[in-house]
Batch of 3 targets.
Target 1
Amino acid sequence: MERHYRHFNAASVVDAARAYEESLENGGQMMVTLAGAMSTGELGLSLAEMIRQDKVQIISCTGANLEEDLMNLVAHSHYKRIPEYRDLTPAQEWELLEQKLNRVTDTCIPEEEAFRRIERLALDGWKRAEAAGERYFPHEYLYQLIRTGVLKAHYEIDPSDSWLVAAAEKNLPIVVPGWEDSTLGNIFSAYMIRGELKSTTVKSGVEYMVMLADWYRNNCAEKGAGFFQIGGGIAGDFPICVVPMMHQDLGIEDVSFWNYFCQISDSTTSYGSYSGAVPNEKITWGKLGIDTPKFIIESDATIVAPLVFAWILGW
């Protein structure tokens, strides 16, 4: 059965949250996917505790969400808030660029204190790995930064409010499809173009899919896993395909479908819109089963996702 809430309300939060908990009780595994700018929207305030309480077992996120949680951790006081962002003129946007302030909706991320600070430390990690003949996934390099403690002197928020810190402490598996599209991905590409780094130093998206397939088979083959999708795009599109890939391309029959699906998104349903597609369409692609509980809430994810998490956490 599919439940489609075109407007956010208390019932939509409670129904989705209850089914989330039931999925954990039945299968014990839950993937949360982060699209949009959820890290800059400070989802870590609730997601970090979800991770600490074992309500999340794996995350799929964009490269932007991966790095922006870390940037918020070390540069929060330098952010600039622009509540009237809808009224900005092109000239005012250009002024922000000249001030080296990159706008994400109503929040501007400072280039020097955030991007360049992380760049210098990330570059050290990339070069160190390359010199040792080692290769890591994008999230593993950031885990290394957190675990070595080199960032602690720069913390500007309580690290307990960082979902990436919580994930590093749990060694939570993370999938980062399309990492090349992120700022750090662009920076890595620039060093590679200049001949200072090799492309193989950072593991690829295909390798992420292989890792995800191994994780699913080892943890979810019998009972499946839940899939809680925040927003649309590659953060959700990429990992949900691991099940039909195993069924249809590998010929593995004894792998369960995803056992729960919820998407919070303001994408409207239209011809060819995957992010706005209703969940039942995923049945035809072998991602969800006929009886998989399915929810879609058309609303602002920065409001709805924390409310769902708060209900699950009993706040």
Note: The longest helix spans residues 111-131.
Target 2
Amino acid sequence: MTAKEQFKILIERAVEVIPEDEFLAKIEKSIATKKPLKVKLGCDPSRPDLHIGHAVVLHKLREFQDLGHEAILVVGDFTAMIGDPSGTNSTRPQLTFEQTRENGLTYFEQAAKILDTAKTRIVYNSEWLGKMSFAEVIRLSASYTVARILERDDFSKRFASEQPISVHEFLYPLAQAMDSVALKADVELGGTDQKFNLLVGRDVQREYGIEPQVIMTMPLIEGTDGERKMSKSYDNYVGLTQAPVEMFGRLMSVPDSMIVKYYQLAAFADSALLEEVRRKLDSGEINPMDLKKDMAVRVISLYHPREAAISAREEFERVFSKGEEPEDMPTAKYNAGTKIWIVEILRENGLVKTGGEARRLITQGAVSIDGEKIDDDKLEISIDKRIVIKVGKRRFLEVIPR
């Protein structure tokens, strides 16, 4: 491909490429010298469970790979011991070195669903950061001003509200920048929430006499609630390693207002399909539920065989559209004739995280037994026959006497 053809493919779906003219020049130089670009993506090992929000930037890295460029995954085992303050209003907990290594391996195993692992270089930034002397840290710190650091939104808000900021947090963006120095990165990818850190990398590379990297920020995708950033802590995520049936159920809870965005950023639909989806939604010629089912099959097929995605759709329709029980659900066995508190059953079988959550869902009418809603959070169940407990729309439990 020509440089302009590569450029057109690679900037698609990106929020910003800074600066675009340098990016095109780097691609032209790469073609002329037959030397692939070094494309860097930092991995946060403090959160190793990947979801389709992480997949947005991973798919972009795969596009670079497919065009012959070098993909470098930087596991931040050293920086995780600092704790990235990006987007937070308080100091993050620090991890041990052992935790960061274990989580980094988990990250790579999941990323393998998207990346060509044979062509992926994985490095740990402790390899260079852990060897820096105190004099070298001072030199690094001198390359950036406190005023510039405080320009970052999360720092400025915490400073204005007189919330504590530890000095070590100022070192995080500088340490991430040193990754770019050590690797001589040509391009660094990240979400829009990483823009400040990526720009610091450009500045610090320049201070160390290295040609500055181009930065490419990718959009963040809202979770299945359609409001907050996708996150496991909000339980609004769709995990890359979840079973197809679970993924399908979660994708079907996406609000109609997010259908187009999920086609674009989760299913990676081309412009023609996006335009068709928009037209069908605007004209009302199709039930949005049918579009969501199609979108869900497309997303799941990226990480599982298409047959499994179609089977998940059929299971969803059988259970939720026709009101039938799922073919495969967890089973709990109790001694026949015993009486057990409903809250205890829900909690110990993983249908809820806490007793408080169980009581709340019961009083809200979100729990049913054999299709009948219950509202008594003090209910005791006599285990003398098979029953099916349903919590919300997707959680089922078969209870049988033994």
Note: The CA atoms of residues 53 and 221 lie 6 Å apart.
Target 3
Amino acid sequence: MMQYQDYLPRLAAHQDVPRLKALWKTVFCDSDADIDYFFNTYFSPERTVVIDDGTKPVSAAYILPTGDLVLPDGTRLSCAMLYAIATHPECRGSGYGEAVTRAAGRLASQTGFPAAVLKPAEDGLFAFYEKRSEFREFFTAFEARFTAAELPPSGSLYAIAPVFPSEYRRLRQRFLKGCAYIDMDERGLAYQQYLSEKAGGGLYALRFADDICGCAVIESGDHSVIFKELLLSGRHRMLDAVSAAAQLLPADLYTVIAVSGYEKPEKTAFQRFGMLMPIPGREEIFGTSSVQCAKWYGLAFD
């Protein structure tokens, strides 16, 4: 079998789209409608890296402009997410995934995105990317799980309601102040809204009495609900937010992904969440001096 050195990464072209969609469907098993939505929303040939097997693309990585990486000192750096890194099953083990990842990361930094990020699909891939690319572990999160029986009564003070992407972005900026975080732009939030609404949820604001005290991206499945992101002001509890959501989305099990600086219920587990390429002149953000700062990747379109 040919190795990736024999087929160098290249930029995609518009005529690649049918075969890129076929590769996406083979690897991720998404519906045609969802694949079309992504390509209509984000596809740009100059921001897509592919490798051919001689006749068609068999590996691809997409560079998505997502907004800014905001550092705790207020510095804002244009940020791009590497997304949907895919290699045809028949070509795995050839180094194609490594090659398109490295090429896409470097292309992002060369085309106006000093911050390039990615979320590995599973925990074991952190080591893969650290060994085979310039990406390094950076973003973290806590994950908590609650059964419906464990939730307190929500009462009448807490409630959730859907919000538009523009409002959701303002709420994220408010509740993530002081963190290192990806300030996702409205296009990204609208894409996340599409994905979450397809999964029975959406973008929500959490209200306590007359005050908005949090926001969340929620998806609903068979007998379970997942908070893809839950952000709260300091004095409000995770359990109260989940209980409020349960009134709208009843389920047997609730899973919450939250910023690592939040309260840590007994059943909460720390997890590494995302990776960042080193930023020239800002190597210190990977050092021990920044450990106490929450580093929030947030929404990953997964």
Note: Helices lie at 17-28, 32-41, 96-110, 125-132, 165-175, 186-198, 238-248.
